[in-house]
Design brief:
single chain, alpha+beta, Aminopeptidase, Alpha-Beta Plaits, 3 domains, 6-stranded mixed sheet, 15 helices
Length: 444
């Protein structure tokens, strides 16, 4: 199957489904044509012009729970500077044992693998005891409102499912230990608006400059420490091989900050990841202000990427923004960003840490990577489309793939939305084999 998966990936990379604006129908039709070549019937749902989703179903006898491959999103994030890449980001070149391109690891290799696995199961006459569904979607990178959530809201009878497997998982987080994702943080993207008074830029003394106020707010946000919670990081620390004494210290919320600073001197990637799973995080990423160099800014705005742990809501976010901003808060308007910009609040969600599908995933890992390998439960610091299915039907949703071990954890995480995004062909092959075994065994 690897040649078919590679070819599909390359075409989707070349389709440039950059969100915004998306144009995901390019890759939806690519997948539709591939499945049609195997005789698979599909439904394509247009959620907006040039944007949509694809569903294929292999009906089961009803003796087993239903399983979905997906939702797999075909939209990708923009590339800020193509000249910084070692390979062109939208050509899908194969080099050094990897497939290179924007979206390769997030998550076109998974979409391609699941599509090819579904087609091969159909062609071999597989008779599942539960429905097997393949769902390909748009718009995940800006909130999923035209993708997975649109399908859940508009076609719930078609996409309701008991179990699903999607991105990401399979990362080497410790010796002989690979991750699977059973939950995720939520999002609360926030826009702050600052009001100043326009005056001539040559007379700034004691002026009310909106950009200056914004700069002060950014500094306060950057310095503020939200409460820490070590509940989720405990199994991760053990999997990373952290010693008992160090682990005990890091499991104390009051000591975690100091321990993360120490860890960052040795491994910045691990420290950053543990930090993200132990608290609400916010990152002020987009600033706008002023209209002309010789005019004191009358308005400014700041967009903040906010990620919340399961159980933290919008009131929690606003409370800590108020604490961080102190007296500045009186002059700042704090809003959610617009829904079409990813501003819809989504809570953190969790599936069961242990389930029949998780047990099967662990068995497949042992067969494909070795009997000494084991799975470790983790939650994702970023949001995925799983949240819509968990919220709607308590679907047991998991991120699962199988990395081949050729890249360290820090390197892997740097490739998501990063320069030189790529995925090892060995990872693609192992992941496809894993999905094939999961579907056959879970539904037989």
């Amino acid at each position: 199957m690897i040649d078919e998966i590679t070819s599909l990936m390359q075409e989707m990379i070349r389709n440039r489904c950059i969100n915004p604006p998306g144009n995901e129908m390019r890759s939806v039709h690519t997948i539709e044509r591939f499945l049609s070549s195997y005789g698979v019937e599909t439904e394509v749902f247009e959620s907006a012009p040039d944007r949509g989703n694809l569903l294929a179903v292999l009906k089961g006898s009803g003796e087993r729970p239903s399983l979905m491959l997906g939702p797999g999103h075909v939209d990708v994030v923009p590339v800020e500077n193509e000249n910084e890449w070692s390979m062109p980001p939208f050509e899908g070149k194969i080099q050094d044992g990897c497939i290179w391109g924007r979206g390769a690891i997030d998550m076109l290799y998974i979409v391609a693998a699941q599509t090819v696995v579904f087609a091969h199961l159909y062609s071999e006459g597989f008779k599942p005891k539960g429905d097997l569904k393949l769902l390909v979607v748009s718009d995940e990178e800006i909130g999923g409102e035209l993708g997975a959530n649109w399908m859940v809201q508009n076609h719930p009878d078609k996409v309701k499912v008991d179990y699903l497997v999607t991105e990401a998982g399979g990362e080497p987080i410790g010796p002989k230990r690979l991750s699977y994702i059973y939950g995720e943080k939520g999002t609360a993207w926030t826009r702050m608006l600052f009001k100043g008074e326009e005056k001539h830029g040559s007379a700034p003394f004691k002026s009310n400059n909106a950009v200056v106020t914004m700069a002060k707010a950014i500094q306060r946000i950057n310095m503020y420490q939200p409460p820490r919670d070590t509940t989720i990081i405990k199994p991760l620390l053990k999997a990373l091989g952290v010693g008992w004494f160090t682990r005990t210290l890091m499991n104390q919320p009051l000591l975690l900050g100091f321990m993360l600073n120490q860890l960052s001197k040795k491994n910045q990637g691990d420290a950053s990841f543990i930090h993200s799973l132990s608290q609400m995080t916010w990152s002020p990423n987009v600033c706008r202000g002023g209209a002309k160099t010789n005019t004191i800014a009358g308005t400014a705005s700041l967009d903040v990427d906010v990620r919340v742990l399961p159980g933290q809501d919008e009131d929690y976010v606003r409370e800590h923004f108020r604490k961080a901003l102190g007296p500045l808060v009186q002059s700042i308007e704090i809003n959610s960003m617009e829904p079409d910009e990813g501003g819809t609040f989504t809570a953190g969600t969790l599936s069961d840490v242990s389930s029949p599908l998780v047990e099967l995933m662990d068995s497949v890992i042992k067969e494909l990577r070795g009997p000494e390998f084991t799975l470790v439960p983790m939650i994702s610091p970023g949001a995925t489309d799983c949240r819509f299915f968990r919220s709607a039907w308590n679907t047991q949703a998991y991120g699962f793939a199988i990395h081949d071990g050729s890249m360290e954890l820090a390197t892997l995480y740097s490739l998501f939305h990063g320069t030189d995004e790529r995925v090892p062909i060995g990872t693609v092959e192992l992941t496809a084999k894993g999905y094939m075994e999961l579907a056959r065994r879970f539904l037989s």
